[in-house]
Amino acid sequence: MIKPMRKISSSFAIILLVAVALFAGPAAAQSLSVDIVGGVKTATPIVVVPFAQQAGMSPLSTDVADVMRNDFNRSGKFRSLARSEIVETPSQGSEIKFATWRLLKQDYIVVGRISDAGSGMLNVTYELWDVNKQQELLGGTFTKPTASLRDVAHQIADKVYQQITGVRGAFWTRMAYITAVGLGDHITYSLIVADSDGYNPQVAVRSHESLLSPAWSPDGSSIAYVSFEDGNSSIRIQNLVTGARQIVSARKGINGAPAWSPDGKKLAVSLSYVGNPEIFIIDLATHQETRLTHSLSIDTEPVWAPDGQSIYFTSDRSGRPQIYQIPVTGGTPQRITFQGQYNAKASVSYDGKQIAMVQGNGNVYRIAIQDQSLGGQTRFISPGPFDDSVSFAPNASMLLYAATDGSRGVLYSVSNDGLVRQRLILADGNVQEPAWGPYREH
Amino acid sequence: MNKTVRVALVALLCVGAAACTKKQEVKPTPPPAAQPTQPQAPVSDGKYTPADLDTDACLRQRTVYFDFDKSEIKPEFQQIMACHAKYLRDRPSAQIRLEGNTDERGTREYNLGLGERRGNAVSSALQADGGSASQLSVVSYGKEKPVCREHNEDCWSKNRRVEIVYTAQ
Predict the structure, then answer these.
(1) Could you give the number of structural domains in chain B?
(2) Which of helix, strand or coil describes residue A132?
(3) Residue of B nearest to A386 (CA)
(4) What value, to the nearest 5°, has the Cα angle with vertex A290 and ends A287 and A296?
(5) Residue A372, Cβ neighbours under 10 Å: how many?
(6) What is the rounded CA–CA span in Å between residue A213 and residue A314?
(7) Last residue within a domain, chosen from A148, A165, A182
């Protein structure tokens, strides 16, 4: 029998329960729990059938279909059918009864199967079908170590996302963020790298002094960040592959706000040894510094335009903080934000068309997106009141930002239209300053 | 009831009345411990000694509070500036670290800048009163080191501060 489709809210409630159950494991102390607070009815319906497992295999710790369902729901572009409403479990195209899924109003169906490839490897085979046309759109097999099963699930989700939307998927990516755990003089700060859905958190740097402003190198190998380990701020680079660490700037005053150039060869930073914070570009090979701004204001939070030709930054030269743009060769900065009393910490989409920022009005600070192609119109994608640190996904379909819940710092991912938000919570302590990493190649 | 007490009572009533008739305008809560308790002006020919850091009413005031997004030193802190500057004059080997802080509103890096601006403002004031630049250093923690963690003006006003830390007496 086919059950009538329930409202989207119940689907999401089930996703929440599944997520909570998944996180009840031993890693809970360092894991992020997941729930979706909004929903969108215009999203494309897709069903991801549980992947069949070869007879005789020991049960796998990762439910590939479940990982994919969460990815699709989080994107805001898709609405995946809840596991409890999946009434049949085909594992290949020839087993799909399309009438069933048409009745459940599904546009697309993903089926798949997992088999043992020997030596700790698995074969994960998937197929994407159009329910109405009864046509296979995509199919393939990943042969990967068992431990990489979540990575495989995200990669399949990316391929499906791209096939249907025409936009490269960004589920198989990572994020960096800072956690602060403890009280008073006993706070431990950690720079953490995790999958973009919050799973698999790994500590990259740990310190008893503040850590700030993680920034990904374009190739995803390194993270630049600000550390107070030596009492004053310094800019450092942590190589995630080799574990090597280097100090890029430890001058008098503020050494802050690192941002990688698109070619990965330079860092834009904010340094105040000249008397007040100014934007500089540091060549990482030669360590040569080039000063870009000259004003008595606070100039900070630089971020590169995708073409590498200009830099956006925060400045209070007009009184309150606003976003400005300056050519990398220097010149007169142009103010680009005019709505809102306070605009700071820009993040630029890959195509340069959208600029996300923290916008403050009165005591309410929310994440706003300014669309450059729409004459600088801004729209809010977060409710506030103390939202901070926004970061675009590499395909700009989603963003990460930091918010405050009670006295606790928490992270959200939000769809570009602001309609689907997913909260990522550390069980204890504050989570802050998320930075979405680049696409992964391996 | 002697005259002094009566005058004081009348003064209190006036203050109360004024406070009541004033519309509840949104004004920042006066920062805590803003008013130095009428510090003893140091004797002009007597020099401060390290012991005074623990006993002198003025020198014991080590926190300067600021208005939102501002770095101007308010008049009520001038006296504190003066006594710490005198200490620096009296003791050339003394060193002060000025730790600038902000409230939680706004981004972390901008607040680093704002905290430094406040630290620099205190440094300038101490130098204007005769302290030497070589005795002063500024570090900004931005909003990273709040003393109060609630989301209201009362708390914010306690966090918008520069702490005067003697690293050498």
Answers:
(1) 1
(2) coil
(3) B105
(4) 130
(5) 15
(6) 14
(7) A165
Task: Determine the longest span between alpha carbons in chain A, in angstroms.
Answer: 74
pLDDT of residue A408: 87
CB pairs under 8 A between A and B: 83
Are residue A397 and residue A347 in the same domain, yes or no? yes
| Cα R_g (chain A), whole angstroms | 23
Three-state SS annotation for B41-94: CCCCCCCCCCCHHHHCCCCCCCEEECCCCCCCCCHHHHHHHHHHHHHHHHCCCC
Q: How far apart are CA A32 and CA A197, in angstroms?
A: 9
CB-CB neighbours of A210 under 10 Å = 21
pTM of the model: 0.86
Positions of chain A with pLDDT under 50: 1-31
Per-residue pLDDT at A12: 39
Judged on CB neighbours under 10 Å (0-12, 13-18, 19+), A300 is: buried
Does the interface predicted TM-score (ipTM) exceed 0.90?
Answer: no
Are residues A309 and A408 located together in one domain of the fold? Answer: yes
Q: What's the pLDDT at B136? A: 98
CB-CB under 8 Å, B144 with A298: no
For A206-227, the pLDDT digits (tens) are 999 999 999 999 999 999 999 9
Segments forming the whole domain that contains residue A227:
174-436
User: For A364, which residue in chain B has the nearest alpha carbon?
Assistant: B105
Contact list in B for residue A360 (CB cut-off 8 A) is: 105-106
Contacts of A253 in chain B (CB under 8 A): 116, 138
- Name the one residue in this structure whose structure tokens are 């360092």: A30
Q: How far is B150 from chain A (nearest CA, A)?
A: 7
Structure tokens at B32: 């805590």
Query: What's the pLDDT at A20?
Result: 33
Residue A415 contacts residue A77 (beta carbons within 8 Å):
yes
